[in-house]
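Work Package 3 (structural annotation) set out to generate three-dimensional models for the target panel prioritized at the project kickoff. During this period the team completed the workflow that converts sequence records into discrete structure tokens, so that structures can be stored uniformly alongside our sequence database. As a representative example, we reproduce one entry of 425 residues exactly as it appears in the project archive.
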Amino acid sequence: MDVDVLTGERRRWCLAVVVALAALLLLGSGLTSSSLAQSPGRAGPTEGPPESDEPATSDSDGVPNAPPSVGTRVPLSYFGPMASEVDRRLVGPVQLLRSGELSRRRTTIELPLYEGHLKDGRNFWYILTDTDDERNAESLGLNFSSKLTYADIDRGVREGRLTKNDGLVVESGAVDFSPERQLVPGPRSKPFPPRVGNPGSVGDAAYTPFVRIANAGQHVYNAPVVAFDVSAKDLSACKGKVNHRLAHDRVTRICPTAEGGGTVTVKTTPIFSFAKPAVYISMEASDRVTATLDNATFAPAIGDVPVGGDDSAFSAVERLFPIINGPRGKDNPQRQGLNSALLDKLAPLHVIGGLPTVALDYSPLWDLNLGQWTKRAIRRGYRSRMIDEFQLLNMVRLGHITGPDGKPFGSTGINVNCPIVFRFL
């Protein structure tokens, strides 16, 4: 066999070994199923208990709790700062969406709340998370995503203008937050796909969170709507008793002001990117069932953005890798997947592609690539928690993970808007 081929294979196996070792280190650090965030929103099969004012337990914050002093003879105070405090690209915790305050105990982030208007006069309340304007991203504490420039395909991006009296004004795009979220799993042997999946909020045909501001450099901003056509007085839930018939299912507190500002607290979702535990906020999905699973808004318009191109020229998306049938069990440190989320009522722990400080290709718009472990891989004991894109893709290459029901692995054609918030390692 050609020497270059052997070298390539050796490199791939070395990568697999390194990723496996990283997984063991993460498991040893306390990042287990019990230490990861549970789903927010109304009561339902994938949700944990609602957030209360009681202090969270030390294992509920979704981050590794073990200090570097474990196993040593010296106290924690003898250790220096995390490397990420010197260089954000190095190992350690980094807040990526810096416009708000992260609660690591509650796995929520409190963000500035903005009021905008449609041309017909109806108001909407929104947050800002990402932009393709790099300098303004830095000054506002938003995520920079150059890929958002290419999301302006068909209905993918709305046009907006900044005005003197009404702030951001867009032509159209309404969201109905009144539906009751309904999620009923399939049979225990095959809970996914669910028998019923009706999202708690639905955007109309024109709604997309992505807005190009015509009189602000033509830059695109990710501006998810969290409430629509409601006054500050009626929406206000500063103490946390949110009316989810008026607000997004991921909102745990909302405190608008009559002047059009305020704050909103949003529940995060734990994920893995290149073996690094992180959290993002699931805001919209182009598919009804996916929106229901994510406690997100069903926004079919974002499905107009092309998928399948990943990091190629003019691609607006990055890839997301949910697993259908990963290991189950609330106390199983290998737990992962949609079946587990539906039966164990815990987060599915998806693998995602690049995020800021780790890669150059970050986008809040994720192209959903759904995977399923084969029966043969399960019989051989290969099934385990995936925490790295290339680890997972190697399992696809070897035939251990396929698309649903043995179909070819690849894009499902579903887009989700999930802005990154925090990287823990």
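Residues 1-63 have pLDDT under 50 and may be disordered.
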